[in-house]
């Protein structure tokens, strides 16, 4: 398996198969996160990704959930995400969920039809690294995308569930979008 830099996954992904899709972070400016400060962002080469899938298949051919590591693999283009999702399907035919970290910026850069297609391909477990859905806490971090979107009255588009630990306000914003997918 090819892993470089920090490999981290949320606790609720503890039983998921892990594959590296990216390393580092595209943003590296969050005041609340120091995980990837010293790592350059890079996408894992498709050749490595496929080699890792072949190895996963040899040990877990019926894996149903796979977590793509890296700070925000959803930064990849729609075409790259699509290619990798279809490749996962080729190797792991029982896989139902491909989960990964995503930033709001990277979700907003995709068209709604692209989000729907990616969800249909199995990319249906995005973890969004928001520090809070609490108004008082957000005012402490006015440089965050979530704070700016809230001030503009926008909802956060997503193609995933929100873990129960997230605040109710963020959950409501995400569920408004999810119900239309």
Features:
6 strands, alpha/beta, 181 residues, 4-stranded parallel sheet, 7 helices, single chain, disordered C terminus, two-stranded antiparallel sheet
Tell me what you see in this structure.
With 181 residues, the protein is an alpha/beta fold. Helix content is 36%, strand content 14%. The protein has 7 helices and 6 strands. Helix 2 (78-91) links the parallel strand 4 and strand 5. 34% of the residues are buried. Residues 155-181 have low confidence and may be disordered.
Structural class label: alpha/beta
Give the fraction of residues assigned to helices: 25-40%
Q: What is the topology, as strand order, of the major beta sheet?
A: 1-4-5-6
What is the ordering of alpha helices and beta strands? EEEHEHEHHEHHH
Report the sheet-strand fraction.
Answer: 5-15%
Tertiary shape: globular
The major β-sheet equals: 4 strands, parallel
């Amino acid at each position: 398996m090819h892993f470089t830099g920090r490999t981290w996954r949320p606790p609720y992904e503890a039983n998921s198969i892990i594959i590296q899709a990216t390393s580092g972070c595209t943003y590296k400016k969050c005041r609340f996160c120091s995980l990837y400060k010293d790592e350059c962002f890079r996408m894992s080469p498709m050749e490595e990704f496929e080699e890792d899938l072949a190895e996963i298949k040899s040990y877990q051919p019926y894996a149903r959930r796979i977590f793509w590591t890296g700070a925000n693999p959803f930064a990849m283009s729609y075409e790259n995400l699509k290619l990798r999702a279809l490749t996962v399907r080729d190797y792991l035919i029982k896989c139902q969920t491909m989960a990964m970290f995503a930033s709001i910026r990277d979700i907003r850069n995709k068209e709604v039809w692209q989000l729907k297609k990616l969800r249909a391909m199995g990319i249906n477990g995005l973890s969004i690294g928001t520090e809070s859905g609490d108004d008082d806490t957000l005012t402490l971090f006015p440089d965050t995308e979530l704070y700016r979107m809230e001030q503009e009255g926008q909802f956060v588009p997503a193609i995933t569930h929100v873990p129960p630990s997230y605040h109710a306000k963020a959950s409501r914003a995400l569920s408004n979008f999810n119900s239309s997918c």
